[in-house]
Each structure stands twice: as structure tokens, then as C-alpha cells.
Amino acid sequence: MSFLAFLFVSTPSDAEDWLYFIENNEGDKFYIDVDSIQQLSPQQLRLKQKIEPWNSPDVLSLGSDLEIDCDGRRIRSLSDTTFFKDGKAITSNEKNQFHTVTVHDLEESLMELVCSLKKTAP
Q: What is the CATH T-level fold of the domain 3-120, as seen in this structure?
């Protein structure tokens, strides 16, 4: 998957503090909620991510609660919610297994951003 943009622009949405950070070749926009970042251990973080699909007739956005292992370069989803344009939402609370992130994954940009924010936090 290729990347078109890597921007740091804060956009207001609901009560979260969504930070737009990348757009893929399909035009899907990716955000993280900066205020949701929690340090679980010295190298593990939890945060919320939102994806706005560019051209979906039914889906408004996809939300995920993620856990990131910065040292192990691993990530997993703790829950996923699909928000539909008609106001409905479907949530899956199934914890997925950690998977290793490589430089070819879109999640690599997310990991680099979030792990670098952790290093600069007090």
C-alpha cells in the first residue's frame, strides 16, 4: 500500500482530538485521537484510530482501539467499530493477536508517529 500524504493537521470531530496523519492511494484518510494515547508499559501504548473511506456509499468511518508495542514493532486491534452514514454502528470487541509491522505496511507510519510522540512525552 502506498502513501500520498503525511501531514500533522488537527481536525475537530466529536469530543476527540483527531490528528490527520496520512492518506492512502485510494483516498482513505487516517486519523489518531491524540488525547486517547495511554502508556500501558514503557513500550506499549493504547490509542484510538479513525479511517474515513474516500468513496464508500454506506460507511462514514471505521474506528479502532489499538495497542502498539513500540520495541517489538507489533500492533493489534482491541475493538473495531464501523459507523454507517444512516447513523447505525456495528462494534466488534474481539481482541486480535499482535502482528509484526513491516515497512511495507500502512501501519508503519502510524507506529512511527505514535512511538515518536511517546518518546517526547514527559
A: Lipocalin (2.40.128)
